[in-house]
Each structure stands twice: as C-alpha cells, then as structure tokens.
Design a protein that fits this description.
Elements: H1 10-42, E1 49-52, H2 53-67, E2 73-76, E3 90-93, H3 95-111, E4 119-126, E5 129-135, H4 158-164, H5 170-180, E6 184-189, E7 195-201
Parallel strand pairs: 2-4
Antiparallel strand pairs: 1-3, 4-5, 5-7, 6-7
Helix pairs in contact: 1-5, 2-3, 3-5
C-alpha cells in the first residue's frame, strides 16, 4: 500500500506499521509455541527433582510484571499472605518446565484482565498435594468452555485473541507439561469474577 501511494497521511502509515509489527510478533510467538510443543511431544519423561517452587514463582512473577507493563502480580499463600524467599514449598518437578508453566499462565491472566486489576499467584500445601493457583479478575471463561481451553489452537474468542496476541497454544503447552508431571490443571471461576487456573502436584 505504501509503495502504491495509498498511505499518504502519516497517521495512516503509522497505523499500518503498527499492525505489521503486531502481526509479526504474533506470528513469531506462534512459531515459538509450535516448536515448544514439538519438543515436548518428542521428549521422554521429564527429570523430576525435589525443588523449592517459591523462587521459581517469585522470578516468574517479577518477569511477568515487567513484560506486562508493570502489572501488579502478587505471590501469596492460601491465607492471602504475601510470601518471600524464606517461604518454602517443595515438590518433584522439572524446574525449567515449571517456569514455562508459570510464565504462560501469568501472561494469559494478564492478557485477559483489565489493566488496573491485580493477578495473583497462590502457592501452598493442601493435604498431601502441592497446589498452585493463578487468579485473574477479568471476564472469565464460560463454564462450558473451561475444559476446551487446554486444547491446541482453541480460542474462546478469536477476535479477542488476535487483538491481544494469543495463539491458542499457551494453555495447551501448560497442560502438556503438567501431564508429564502427572499433575492436574483445571479452570475455575475466581471469586468475584475472572478465571482461576488450579494446579495440583502430588
């Protein structure tokens, strides 16, 4: 369009360039996600080692806050108390793979939450299980779609995912990694509205 002279005004040119940049980033993310899934499909069982999950959670939250334009991300226990590096929650995991889980879930929660809403990463022991929840306060996911969101390329709202850069693969990567941990993940409704992704590690 630019070469044909169709974009004569600076604003129109700026808008076109922004769309091109946004689409390039989206396609780059899609390729990265496809490569991640291919590696997971080909990999043997993950090396699960007794690991303190708190440092992984804190680092993932810090990075996600920066990536999502300084969104407030709180890391707490199930009593709602903010936790630091002295708090301990251990489980047998592949640390790098679990970091990917945290990164994807926090990015997803931020993507579909209003800018002024906090995202929470909650971690602790409940009974014999290590439990992790990522809670957002956005629009939420309709009950009939909560199991489908973990399917590859599934999008509850195609237009919204395109606007926010979603590829429809982030949650399927999470599910694949957790399956390798023999862990479970379910999508629930957050109290007051929104979505909670609940992980249980045994």
């Amino acid at each position: 369009l630019y070469r044909m002279g169709a974009l004569k005004e600076k604003q129109a040119l700026d808008d076109a360039m922004n769309r091109i940049e946004s689409e390039a980033l989206r396609m780059g993310g899609l390729v990265d996600n496809l490569l991640t899934l291919a590696r997971l499909d080909e990999a043997t069982d993950l090396a699960l080692v007794e690991t303190d999950l708190v440092p992984i959670a804190l680092e993932a939250a810090k990075d996600a806050s920066v990536a999502e334009h300084k969104r407030t991300i709180l890391v707490t226990d199930f009593a709602g108390k903010k936790i630091g590096s002295s708090y301990r929650v251990k489980a047998k995991v592949d640390a790098m793979a679990l970091r990917q889980v945290f990164t994807n879930l926090l990015a997803n929660a931020s993507r579909f939450s209003p800018a002024d809403k906090t995202v929470e990463l909650v971690i602790g022991i409940q009974g014999s299980k290590t439990v992790i929840e990522v809670r957002d306060h956005g629009e939420g996911i309709p009950k009939q779609l909560r199991e489908k969101v973990f399917e590859r390329f599934f999008r509850a709202d195609n237009s919204r995912n395109r606007e926010t850069g979603g590829s429809g693969l982030g949650l399927s990567i999470v599910k694949t990694i957790l399956d390798r941990h023999r862990a479970t993940i379910v999508a629930l409704e957050t109290d007051g509205g929104g979505t909670t992704m609940r992980i249980e590690l045994t």
